[in-house]
Amino acid sequence: MTIAIVCVILAGFLPIIAAGIAKFGPTENAASAPYDNNKPREWLAKQTGLRARANAAQANTFESLPFFYIAIAIAMFLQAPQDRIDVLAITYLLARVAYIACYVMDWANLRTFVWLVGFACTVALFFQI
Fold first, then answer.
1. What is the CATH number of the domain that holds 85?
2. Model-level pTM?
């Protein structure tokens, strides 16, 4: 198993981590009602602050996965140099972890920068062939 494949697997867990922060993590509002598993989407729609940002990070992370997965698959299928694929995959993964952290912490400018890094890694995978 290559490093890039491990990154693909780990990237799949990132939205779950962001969802966990949104549903069970700390809250900025002490009066916030506990997570309602009977109506999870309604409950999340009412959240603000950290929980709302973590939920938005979850959604954006899910949105980024297909493009990344396809880029890895195409690069590997066309036999791009594996070391370059691995470096770009690791960088993407680290950028997405940083993205979630920046989103949760409300660091908008840094969040945009790390989003661009992750996106650039995905696009670069297509040019390794």
1. 1.20.120.550
2. 0.91
